[in-house]
């Protein structure tokens, strides 16, 4: 099993003047601790589960580019980009650029989007859910075309591209891994089975059943279920002085038993660095063979 550090809160001691330095220290510590990947949210406002919308929120791909320059091995992605936040061609270019400049460490995390407040707040269209899923599927098709040798046009219901040139292409072949976030059984997991290299689910009590649904979609579509990386997002609570690492290990073993390959986790007080180091010292070595 592998671990990913999910950075979702940028309200840290020192405020905006220290954000760059603090983020660099966090990313460097995560890489040194043995985390496989580092992810950020792709939001404009802070989300209600964490704090009020006025709290600090950095632009996702600018942030990942900065982290790429401060690290050398850790994989980089959003968990996840809302499909309505960028035109598909621009999103393909952003992830391609990140992949090239990071030396082949980018992943595309994408989903149907859910935060209407921030979309309306900054003037982004927020169509009904059914249309967002239609746009998600077309976006996946466009990005896969741009990450191929086909630079011809694309004409869908919502998007029309006259020439899908993408130069430079990503370094990873056949393309950076595509991760689709969300647990919707009818649409989201079907899109995972059809287009994605990885899924990301919430660590809720029904998460095992979600994997069964994904397996069923794979069977219907003729997709190898085992070829999809199963990831889950949760909280890494190691306590104030790393006294809860055993509880975290037990939780990770439960996820491994269900068939998950990677766990993304948020950390309280991540800017203190000590929780990152505690996981690197006491947790990551213990889960290598799970």
Summarize the structure.
40% of the residues lie in helices and 16% in strands.
Describe this structure in words.
There is one protein chain. This protein has one domain: Luciferase-like domain (TIM Barrel, Alpha-Beta Barrel). Helix content is 40%, strand content 16%. The protein has ten helices and eleven strands. It has a nine-stranded parallel β-sheet with strand order 3-2-1-11-10-9-8-5-4, with helices on one face. A two-stranded antiparallel sheet has the order 6-7. Helix 3 crosses helix 5. The radius of gyration is 19 Å and the shape is globular. The termini are close together.
Topology:
Elements: E1 2-7, H1 16-33, E2 37-40, H2 60-70, E3 75-78, E4 81-82, H3 88-101, E5 108-111, H4 116-121, H5 129-146, E6 154-155, E7 160-161, E8 178-181, H6 188-195, E9 198-202, H7 207-221, E10 229-235, H8 245-258, E11 262-266, H9 274-282, H10 284-287
Parallel strand pairs: 1-2, 1-11, 2-3, 4-5, 5-8, 8-9, 9-10, 10-11
Antiparallel strand pairs: 6-7
Helix pairs in contact: 1-9, 2-3, 3-5, 6-7
Q: Element order, helices and strands?
A: EHEHEEHEHHEEEHEHEHEHH
**What is the count of structural domains?**
1
Rg computed from alpha carbons, rounded to a whole number of angstroms: 19 Å
How many angstroms separate the termini? 5 Å
List descriptors.
two-stranded antiparallel ribbon; nine-stranded parallel sheet; alpha/beta; TIM Barrel; 40% helix; 290 residues
């Amino acid at each position: 099993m592998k671990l990913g550090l999910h950075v979702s809160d940028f309200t840290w001691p020192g405020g905006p003047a220290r954000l760059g330095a603090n983020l660099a220290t966090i990313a460097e510590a995560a890489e040194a601790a043995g985390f496989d990947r580092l992810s950020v949210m792709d939001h404009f406002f802070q989300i209600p589960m964490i704090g009020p919308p006025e709290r600090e929120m950095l632009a996702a791909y600018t942030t990942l580019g900065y982290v790429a320059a401060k690290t050398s091995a850790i994989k980089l992605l959003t968990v996840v980009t809302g499909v309505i936040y960028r035109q598909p061609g621009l999103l393909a270019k952003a992830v391609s650029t990140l992949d090239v400049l990071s030396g082949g460490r980018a992943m595309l995390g994408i989903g149907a989007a859910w935060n209407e407040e921030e979309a309306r707040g900054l003037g982004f269209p927020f169509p009904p859910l059914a249309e967002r899923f239609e746009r998600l599927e077309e976006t996946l098709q466009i990005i896969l075309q741009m990450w191929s040798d086909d630079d011809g046009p694309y004409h869908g219901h919502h998007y029309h591209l006259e020439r899908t040139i993408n130069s430079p292409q990503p370094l990873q072949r056949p393309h950076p891994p595509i991760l689709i976030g969300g647990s919707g059984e009818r649409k989201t997991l079907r899109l995972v089975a059809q287009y994605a290299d990885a899924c990301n689910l919430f660590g809720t009590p029904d998460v095992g059943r979600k994997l069964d649904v994904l397996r069923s979609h794979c069977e219907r579509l003729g997709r190898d279920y085992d070829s999809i990386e199963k990831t889950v997002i949760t909280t890494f609570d190691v306590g104030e002085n790393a006294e809860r690492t055993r509880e975290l290990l037990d939780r990770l073993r439960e996820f491994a038993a269900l068939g998950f390959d990677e766990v993304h986790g948020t950390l309280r007080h991540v800017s203190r660095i000590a929780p990152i180091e505690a996981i690197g010292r006491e947790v990551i070595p213990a889960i290598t063979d799970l």
